[in-house]
Amino acid sequence: MAKKEYSFYPGCSSQKGASSSNYLKSANAMCDALEIKLNHIPDWNCCAASIGYAGGGKLPRISLSARNIALSEQAHPNQDIVATCAACWLATKEASERIDHDPQIKQEVVQVLDAANLKIKNNKPVRHMVEVLIEDFGYQALGKKVVKPLEGIKIAGYVGCQTNRPFGIAGESFENPLYLDKLVETMGAEPIKNYDKKVQCCGGALAFSEPEKSQAMIKDIITSAYDSDADMIVTPCPVCQMNVEVYQDQINKKYGTKFNMPVVYYSTLMSVAYGKSAKEAALDGQIIKAKQLEAIANK
Predict the structure, then answer these.
(1) Which of 15, 79, 97, 167 is surrounded by the fewest CB atoms within 10 Å?
(2) Are 245 and 288 in contact (CB under 8 A)?
(3) What is the rounded distance in angstroms from the CA atom of residue 64 to the CA atom of residue 157?
(4) How far is residue 168's CA from residue 187's CA, in Å, rounded to a whole number?
């Protein structure tokens, strides 16, 4: 029997063939080791993170996330809502906050949901998976599950902006959040504690509309990791992971750099440290191979 159960919102990018399907795979492996059961919200929909600010209006955007909250309450009434995707977490948490603090929004959302025969209580917290790890388990308990310490790997913790602002992780500094550093250390690797780009935006919103600006921002993120002697970058955000990994070839051509920096999820690190295989940890989903993690996983 699972020690802890959560109502899980996987999000669009985690689906088969999508950009962060490897994130969900490694998260499942991590949760298996920690005896966490993720109960998927039935019939969930997109949180509108990609299109919700493009002229669709505030009410449709918030209503989409409110529908997921209502479905979660219907299917898993006693469980906290948990997301792995930073954008999904941010959108759902924002919807919950606005419903709580804006009577007009609440009234309008209730009307929208009523048309779909749904009701919302909004009485359970919306949490990112890293909050669950830190608050419900703690670093000491997470460390006890390590069977293959990630020794000899230097890792830059790239938090990005979506899990940092406006809400952030409880108890963490907005300017210098340390939870990724602590998770890295807990898994036996060496965190780059002076990494100065950990909260810089990767330019995710500009990747298609203004790629030159986005890639300039990514270049700074990777350059800082190299300057700090990092072997790889770890992140909690699918957009950050994708942007910082997949555009390295284009950046190399434009700037004459020789970037080849693996960018992985915290769940990937943890899955390997917990003794999961390279396939279970979804290392085969990396575009830039994390060879040091593969070597440890294959021991």
Answers:
(1) 15
(2) yes
(3) 31
(4) 23
The SS3 of residue 175 is coil
Q: CA torsion 254→256→262→264, rounded to 10°?
A: -30
Dihedral, CA of residue 89, residue 11, residue 177 and residue 161, to nearest 10: -90
Q: Which of 154, 133, 130 is nearest to 145 (CA)?
A: 133
| 4-129: CATH topology | Glutathione S-transferase Yfyf (Class Pi); Chain A, domain 2 (1.20.1050)
3-state secondary structure of 264: strand
The 10s digit of each residue's pLDDT in 16-66 is: 888 889 999 999 999 999 999 999 999 999 998 876 566 667 899 999 999
Residue 15 CA to residue 32 CA, distance in Å, equals 19
Whole-angstrom distance, CA of residue 143 vs CA of residue 141? 5
Diameter of the chain measured on Cα atoms: 58
- 198-207, 216-225, 241-250: which range is least confident on average? 198-207
Q: List pLDDT tens digits, range 117-151.
A: 999 999 999 999 999 999 999 999 999 999 999 99
- Which two structure tokens, joined as six digits, stand for 246? 């997949």
The count of other CB atoms within 10 Å of the CB of residue 25 is: 24
CA 272/CA 149 separation, integer angstroms: 8
* Amino acid making up residue 5: E
Q: If we measure between CA atoms, which residue out of 180, 184, 188, 253 comes closest to residue 215?
A: 253
**What is the domain class of 146-297 according to CATH?**
alpha beta
Per the confidence metrics, is the pTM higher than 0.90? yes
Cα Rg of the chain, angstroms: 19
Q: Where are the domains of the chain?
A: 4-129, 146-297
H/E element holding 107? Answer: helix 103-115
DSSP, collapsed to helix, strand or coil, labels residue 224 as helix
